[in-house]
Design goal:
The protein has 126 residues and is α+β, with helices and mostly antiparallel strands. It has helices spanning 8-26, 35-48, 52-60, and strands spanning 31-33, 67-73, 79-88, 93-102, 108-114. The radius of gyration is 14 Å and the shape is globular.
């Protein structure tokens, strides 16, 4: 995925992605988990007591400082995809979240939610 450099325009672009996510959630759009994301959530649930609500809260509370990569079109071009690094649960567990906003609809599709395998840069932090 593309990592946007820190510029005012890119900061605005990522904030608009986050704002659109919040708008959809506030209008009752539910987050759909891919098979991969569901499997990852099962692992998080067993090992760290993380539930769907924890992931949903994390997405609803994202900020530009948590930006990691994106905004990229999905392979079929039907979603705009972005990734973030945030902390969830009672243990304040670092998690990688990658999700997309349907370009010609309202769906929010979660592609991935797992503990990062390596340190994650956050180009908009600070």
């Amino acid at each position: 995925m593309t990592e946007l450099p820190y510029t005012t325009d890119n900061l605005i672009l990522v904030q608009e992605f986050i704002d659109e996510t919040s708008r959809r959630i506030s209008e009752g759009v539910e987050i759909t988990f891919t098979k991969k994301a569901s499997s990852e959530l099962e692992t998080l649930a067993i090992e760290f007591d993380i539930e769907v609500i924890d992931i949903e809260k994390a997405i609803a509370n994202l900020s530009t400082e948590q930006y990691y990569t994106g905004i990229d079109p999905s392979p079929k071009g039907d979603f705009n995809v972005c990734a973030f690094c945030t902390y969830i649960g009672d243990d304040n567990l670092q998690i990688y979240l990658k999700y997309g906003l349907e370009a010609a609809g309202l769906q929010i599709l979660l592609f991935s939610n797992h503990i990062p395998a390596y340190p994650m840069t956050q180009p908009f932090k600070n």
